[in-house]
């Protein structure tokens, strides 16, 4: 028998496919309206592999996506090029994000992460709260701070230098950046990493979930491309120290396991966003 939770999940998947196909049609139509020349150049590239230059070199789907979001659909953002890299300006919140590559801005614009849209969090929920941000990338701690958080502790092992630069750029001082990977010793992904002798630097940047959750937080946001698996092995009492969790879960099997884990810990769940068939964002609220 299909539970209500499973039914909600399947309905969200169907909604995702309809929305995804609609978005593709919208991109095709809006590109043609913006520039018929660009439209035909892009069609030719996709059919025959002929790259072209339109402001910058378009040699892949990712390059065209960048062009579309930063030039054609450019109402909210402004992209400035400098010798050292690029600065993306979010006009509504007056935020500035620096990166050496404009490709780093694609998830920011596509997922509207600068206003935490895909996490369904608002200023009222965030104001004066202590935030745990696992997977801060180069932007979400800035968004939390600008939306009124009292303090943000973020774990970002890959982009932490860029994140620190962007915090200075936006004059933000209530964010603590920790350049560590999060793990649980039972986690299969970690076991594979530890077998690889080439990953010496990864081994130096590892901290346990148990240590992370010793500190008190009001909201926990987890978007770390797989480290959420470690939550399965965390004691329920530690999970309950944070009343609201926002977690991106990868894979349907892990999705079911994490839902069951949080239910047993005394949380109710809600599916709030579907990226694709293998990535879902859930909100867990302590009952």
**At the fourth CATH level, what is the homologous superfamily of the largest domain?**
Vaccinia Virus protein VP39
Compute the number of structural domains: 2
Uncertain runs: none
Provide the CATH topology of the largest domain: Rossmann fold
The overall average pLDDT, rounded, is: 83
Strand sequence of the main sheet, in spatial order?
8-7-6-11-12-14-13
Please state the second-level CATH architecture of the largest domain: 3-Layer(aba) Sandwich
User: What's the SSE pattern?
Assistant: HHEEHEEEHHEHEHEEHHEHEHEHEE
Which structural class do the helices and strands define?
Answer: alpha/beta
Distance between the termini: 25 Å
Strand content: 25-35%
Give the helix proportion (percent range): 40-55%
The main sheet comes to: 7 strands, mixed
- Highest CATH level, the class of the largest domain: Alpha Beta
| Dominant shape | globular
Task: Jot down its keywords.
single chain; 287 residues; alpha/beta; 2 domains; seven-stranded mixed β-sheet; 12 helices
What does this structure look like?
It is a single chain. The chain is of the alpha/beta class. The protein folds into two domains: 1-74, no CATH class; 113-286, Rossmann fold (3-Layer(aba) Sandwich). Helices cover 40% and strands 25% of the residues. It has twelve helices and 14 strands. The protein has helices spanning 4-34, 36-48, 61-72, 106-110, 123-126, 140-146, 160-169, 188-195, 200-204, 209-212, 236-239, 252-264, and strands spanning 52-54, 56-58, 77-82, 85-90, 95-99, 130-134, 151-155, 175-178, 181-183, 206-208, 219-222, 244-250, 267-276, 279-286. A seven-stranded mixed beta sheet has the order 8-7-6-11-12-14-13, sandwiched between helices. The chain has a three-stranded antiparallel beta sheet with strand order 3-4-5. α1 (4-34) crosses α2. It is globular, with a radius of gyration of 20 Å. The mean pLDDT is 83.
